[in-house]
Design brief:
The structure holds two protein chains of two kinds.
Chain A: H1 2-40, H2 47-72, H3 80-96, H4 101-125, H5 130-149, E1 154-155, H6 163-166, H7 176-194, H8 196-206, H9 208-213, H10 218-244, E2 246-247, H11 255-265, H12 277-296, H13 301-335
Antiparallel strand pairs in A: 1-2
Helix pairs in contact in A: 1-12, 2-7, 2-10, 2-11, 2-12, 3-4, 3-5, 3-10, 4-5, 4-10, 7-8, 11-12, 11-13
Chain B: H1 2-43, H2 50-75, H3 83-100, H4 106-131, H5 135-154, H6 166-173, H7 184-202, H8 204-214, H9 216-221, H10 226-252, H11 263-273, H12 285-304, H13 312-343
Helix pairs in contact in B: 1-12, 2-7, 2-10, 2-11, 2-12, 3-4, 3-5, 3-10, 4-5, 4-10, 6-10, 7-8, 8-10, 11-12, 11-13, 12-13
The chains are: A mainly alpha, B mainly alpha.
Chain lengths: 336, 346
């Protein structure tokens, strides 16, 4: 009884309240962004614009889902955008070698699996830090793409399937990428928040050692998450290729910033063990609206990165802010 | 005091072996450089000329310079991903300064570059240490924020070579008089590497950096000013990237908003290949500079063999992964041998 009361009063509410507070904050930010968007252009709340927001965010949003899980278990994957680029490149490379389109896609997904497995093996098999590993594969995968396509590009303009990248799902105003993201988000949400595997991910992120002693297969789960990330990023690469109807080695360069920013802005703790798919979903919508509003105001893409980078900084600074402030006060206090 | 006395005693054999390993690492890189050089020369006899030595020195100078600062940061168990953007920002602003002040002393150009870099480094350092957030996230954000600010400043313009003083440009392409094929650029970088190597070996505050990287909690408990040292490392990394920007401008003489794009990957790779442990706590500036030379050597060799000039990123990434995997393997072996070694006399 006492244990239960203790758990009920002291342990559970703060965590729950913190989570609520962050996501409440996101809703407020979302409203602000929507108001700003409405002010920036009269066309902001049109179905066409909503369609384009979904289109622009599609790949980034889809890649943010596996990264959410990876950050929750206390790791990071910086190679996401390079994997997208490598996938787009290889799809073009296969296509230029007259592979049938279905085979091109399967080949690309296989590359995603292999790339993810390499990340996963280096992190869990060799016990290397995921930061270093994925900085390495960030360079490696982009470099491989560069080797295969050099400075050439492969056009997909004659392929009918590229409609998936540019036309809405028939009967709706949603892009295919948006629909896929929503379905995936639902699946990820259920897995993370309503299954034993999901709960064990939080356990791993909070205390990997304790989780291991509790019988959770830490290494296996981490490995699988990296494989999943590789697979999903190569899928995003396919969508990207269909959207732009072209394959180039530099596809999606620098998108890791947006993906990491969305995950952390969505309230996932960089230290692991904390975060929700709902928060990430809100962050996706906020980033999408903000990006479109800025584009409507003719803000240059590189300047938009300042905003993205700033939001990324804020999302790690704010949770540590109170703590840092207290430290500062104690330090000033002890000095006087 | 007793606590302090205990630690070195227990660590003596380990330090000895660790240093032996490091020495082997730098020797190993030298051997690798010679091996690549020899094999390429066998295939393409034109490769062994003095020209390629000059190209090698010039080509790896900037990365080696940035690698020195990055070494300090990585030794503290942090990482600085913003160096490429800082280099670009500094290069453009120094160029812009000369454009408006054509008769300014060239030394001022370097001071401005270093100042800009140190400023960004200080911001990185403050955010990282004050809020205690991972430097990976902070400097990833800085990488894009600095590049974005640069885009606003540049606004589509570019600095042409005719607005850069001749004396300044000469640092970038002229050789030291009397010595054949030794560019000033390389001399400058070698001096910086030598100073950094000496500093990191001999000065107390620099030794603190190694202690912090080996075990941040223990370093804090031992009374080391962890935050201040990490901050210093970031400032030095930024300052050297700023200096790199000035040298970039001197070398290429024209600059827009893309200078140094993607350098961070090459720099981190050079540092890790050069034997600086990604877990922090060990590695030398000299090794990191050698790592930069090796990366450049491999790319030059691939070029000379007519393979392709598109291999830079793949080589950097592949070598980085090989290096950390190798270090891990050696580390596990050393740990095993230490265990068995300690077990025997007891």
């Amino acid at each position: 009884m006492t244990a239960a009361t203790y758990e009920g009063t002291a342990a559970a509410p703060p965590a729950w309240r913190n989570l609520l507070r962050w996501e409440t904050g996101l809703v407020v930010v979302l409203v602000a962004v929507l108001l700003y968007g409405q002010q920036s252009s009269a066309n902001f709340f049109t179905t066409t614009n909503i369609f384009f927001i979904g289109l622009n965010m599609g790949e980034i949003a889809i890649m943010a889902l596996p990264l959410t899980l990876i950050v929750i278990v206390g790791e990071i994957d910086l190679s996401v955008a390079s994997m997208l680029g490598l996938s787009s490149t290889m799809m073009g490379y296969f296509y230029a070698h007259h592979w049938p389109i279905a085979l091109c896609m399967l080949g690309v997904l296989a590359i995603g699996l292999a790339g993810g497995a390499l990340n996963g093996w280096l992190v869990t098999g060799l016990g290397l830090p995921s930061i270093a590993v994925t900085i390495g594969t960030l360079a490696l995968y982009r470099g491989l793409a560069e080797i295969f396509l050099k400075d050439q590009s492969v056009s997909w303009a004659s392929v009918k399937l590229t409609h998936i990248g540019t036309k809405p799902v028939s009967g709706t105003e949603l892009s295919w990428a948006t629909l896929i993201f929503l379905v995936l988000a639902l699946v990820y949400g259920v897995v993370l928040h309503a299954t034993a595997v999901g709960r064990s991910m939080y356990a791993i992120g909070l205390q990997s050692e304790a989780a291991r002693f509790a019988g959770i297969r830490v290494k296996r789960i981490k490995f699988q998450l990296f494989v999943l990330s590789g697979l999903v990023c190569s899928f995003a690469g396919i969508l990207w290729t269909l959207r732009f109807a072209t394959s180039r080695y530099d596809a999606g360069t620098g998108l890791e910033l947006n993906v990491v920013a969305i995950v952390l802005f969505g309230g996932v703790s960089i230290f692991g063990g904390k975060g929700s798919i709902f928060g990430v979903l809100l962050a996706v919508v906020i980033f999408g609206c903000l990006q479109t509003a800025l584009t409507l105001q003719n803000v240059d893409a590189q300047v938009q990165n300042v905003v993205t980078g700033g939001l990324l900084l804020l999302s790690v600074i704010i949770p540590s802010g109170a703590e840092a402030w207290r430290r500062l006060k104690t330090r000033l206090g002890t000095r006087t | 005091m007793t606590v302090l006395a205990d630690r070195p005693a227990a660590a003596v054999p380990r330090v000895g072996r660790g240093q032996a390993l490091l020495r082997a690492r730098e020797l190993g890189i030298c051997l690798a450089i010679i091996l690549v050089f020899g094999l390429t020369t066998l295939k393409n006899s034109g490769f062994a000329g003095v020209l390629s030595v000059e190209q090698l020195l010039t080509g790896s100078a900037l990365i080696a310079l940035l690698a020195v600062g990055e070494t300090m940061v990585i030794v503290t168990r942090n990482v600085d991903l913003s160096v490429g953007s800082v280099l670009g920002l500094s290069a453009y602003l120094v160029g812009d300064f000369f454009k408006h002040n054509p008769h300014a002393p060239i030394l001022l150009g370097f001071v401005i570059g270093i100042g800009i870099g140190a400023l960004v480094g200080a911001v990185n350092g403050v955010v990282t240490t004050f809020f205690r957030v991972p430097s990976l996230v902070v400097t990833l954000a800085a990488l894009y924020i600095v590049r974005g600010i640069l885009a606003v400043i540049v606004n589509g313009r570019r600095i042409e070579s005719d607005s850069i003083p001749d004396a300044f440009q000469k640092i970038g392409y002229e050789n030291v008089p009397g010595i054949d094929r030794l560019p000033w650029l390389a001399v400058l970088v070698i001096v910086v590497v030598a100073i950094a190597a000496y500093t990191m070996k001999s000065f107390r505050w620099a030794r603190d950096i190694y202690a912090i990287g080996s075990n941040p909690e223990a370093a804090a408990l031992a009374g080391l000013p962890v935050a201040r040292r990490v901050f210093t490392a970031f400032v030095i990394s930024g300052a050297l990237a700023g200096l790199g920007g000035a040298l970039f401008l001197a070398e290429f003489a024209t600059v827009d908003n893309t200078g140094g794009t993607g350098y961070e990957l090459l720099v981190v790779s050079a540092v890790v290949v050069g034997g600086v442990a990604i877990f922090g706590g060990s590695g030398t500036a000299f090794g990191a500079a050698l790592g930069a030379v090796l990366l450049n050597m491999i790319n030059q060799a691939l070029g000379a063999l007519g393979v392709s000039s598109f291999w830079t990123n793949a080589v950097a990434g592949g070598l980085l992964l090989l290096a950390i995997a190798f270090d891990r393997w050696v580390g596990l072996r050393v740990a095993r041998s230490l265990r068995t070694g300690r077990g025997a006399p007891a």
